[in-house]
Model the fold of this input.
Amino acid sequence: MAVENITLNLIPTGDTPSIHAAQYDVDRTFTVTLKEGADDFTPTGYDIELQVRKVDNNIVTAIPTLTSGNVVTFNTTEQMTACSGTNLAELQLSKDDQTIATLHFYLVVQRDVLSGGLTSQSEIYDLEEQIAAIVPEVIGDEYYTAEQVDEKIAEIPTFDPTNYYTKSQVYTKTETNGFLAQKANTSSLATVATSGSYNDLLNKPTIPDVSNYYTKSETYNQTEVNNLLSAKADTSSLSTVATTGDYNDLLNKPTIPAAQVQSDWSQSDNTKVDYIKNKPTIPTNAELLPIESGSSTNTKAYIDSRSLGDLSNVVLTSPQATQMLQFANVGGQLKLVNTSRNAIRHTTVSGTTDSTGDILCSDLPLANYQILSAYKNRNVAGQSAVAYCILGANNNTHPYIHCINSNNTNLASTAVTIEVYYVEI
Done:
């Protein structure tokens, strides 16, 4: 069933539209489009109520079944269409219990043919013909008895409403002609209207052969090409070496010196390539003074006697073999002085370890000496790889060394030669 729509404007225009319905129509849908001047009005946040004052002055109220944007939808009720005729309808918009706007339209209810009266034009026309046919017999020179009248009336065909459409179910000729005016006669349509074929078109355009064109994804436009070219150099502005790659085409070539030669310590000519700059001055043995650091002649250290002069800057002018010297600040001058420590000494321990891998350092009393390190004498033929661990005193008289092999096993009853470094304490 078609849905009737009217437009109501919050700014009065003087026009009052109408909604049409049949008497006793129930759930007939109609819509109201809301405007405010030329603009759509969306009633978000507003309460909407419809009041219909029927021609018998009874009032029916209803609320919308749907609101979408600026369109409000209503369905008719039986009471709303109970009275035929033109009923006044009022749409109220309120917010916060205050009426904001009242919009009016007419609800035109067409009388139902079964509601107690004959309002169909075609039905009235048939009845008049029948009355005209029997009037001469009833009102003429002769009178009919009641039975005859009943017989005549019985001969009148019975009206069966099921054989008729109501006005709400049909279109008038004016409405039908209006619909037809919006349609085209099939005889006036072009062939393509029914075939849908491009070949049936007249004045078809000439379509170019696109095989001679590139798509935009296959090429660059002028701006893109110019941007790419701007990042490149013109070949005319390039140097010759850019295309030849030849060293001889370079400008401002560097001067490359002759092949390198080995440095010569004896070279005294500083213009020669083998000359050594900033050579240190190395003193001769005659310029060195030995400092005894132990009893072995292989453990001497030396200082430059030129820095000592006649030993006037040495506090201890006659050092002993068992003493050590160190530099110290004496009266604001750096001098060599005796220290409280003794020099590091060396000795060799040779012999056979006992059953537990120990060997005594019998030359060193426990109370006067401290062993610093001990290691295998590599010059002793047949000496196996040995590790040593200094353990302290044996019989509280002499220090001893515990010997183990590479497998961390005691080296028992084995001939060994051990180099020992110690200090006197």
